[in-house]
Predict the 3D structure of the following.
Amino acid sequence: MFRPLNWLLGLFSLDIGIDLGTANTLVSVRDRGIVINEPSWVAINKRTRRPLAIGAEAREMVGRTPADIVAIRPLRDGVISEFEITEAMLKYFISKSHEQMLVPFPRPRVVVGVPSGVTEVEKRAVYDATISAGAREAFLIEEPMAAAIGAGLPIIESRGSMIVDIGGGTTEVAIFAMGGIVISRSIRVAGDEMDEDIIQYARNKYNLLIGERMAERIKIGIGSAFALPEERTMTMRGRNLINGLPQSVEISSIELREALAPSINIIVDTVRDAIDETPPELVADLMETGVCLAGGGAQIQGLADRIEDAVKMRVWVAEDSMTCVARGAGRVLEDLDNYGRVLVGLDRGSTHH
Ligand code: ADP
Ligand code: MG
């Protein structure tokens, strides 16, 4: 239906999609693509809990902060553990993407992706934070839904499709049909846990203590879930736990696969369990559409092959897998007629506290 007023407003207003991820926050703006991609970190004063730095700047402070400053990830486990800090982060990113505009646009319409397990109170909190951050209108969408839209899956069609979004703190699995989520799973095993696996492995096998950032670098460099055509090595640097001295150790991609196995196995099993619970008609659809992987963790080499082996269906990694949620959230506003019904409803009764 053609709505002249909406059309006119659309010409002058800004539409923003936000992925409030456990590891990274991304903002996508209509016609401009991804304008912000920063770590979801906030540095706060320990005593007053006042935010001092947000995003990339806060992450730089990790491990280097004076005693009274602490850098935290308020969404680490896929739940909003520190509301005020999350709110500050949201405000910062919305105003930052607004400031980048050359024309003084009116206040934006914003769609924010929230983890599918969030409570009513958390949804309300994100909604309020978005409005108080300057949004003209705010909408919420479940992250797997946004990821699927961003990956281009046919979620509003009747036939089934499936997304596996592997982030930092959580892996979310969802099977869609007719614009709704039919089966979903959310586990706290994803990229962070893989880093933890590597830290454990280095400690147990080499008595080497390495930091989170070193572990992540090794994972991104040579981490894999399936035998590689050419196995590789990388140097881990850390501190020897026996003599306390700095030490370097060469680690191979074969060893790394062994290190990552606990997390990878859990993810693979979760995908298989979700498919096991899917009604047969939908399974038949999935055998045609396949399984799409999204999120940063989807980029582990050989993960798609590994899952394909376990579920006997085609598995592929979405194009630009880390930006799917933000792009999908933004896309909803371009086509509210079609996508409006996939948004998360808020319990309006709880507006007034
Ligand atoms: P979230 O949505 O939870 O914020 P992201 O989708 O941004 O998470 O993914 C972040 C995770 O992806 C981190 O654990 C990061 O180490 C991991 N990651 C990013 N790039 C790669 C890569 N090339 N290979 C493996 N893991 C990656
Ligand atoms: Mg995510």
Summary: The first helix runs from residue 4 to 12.
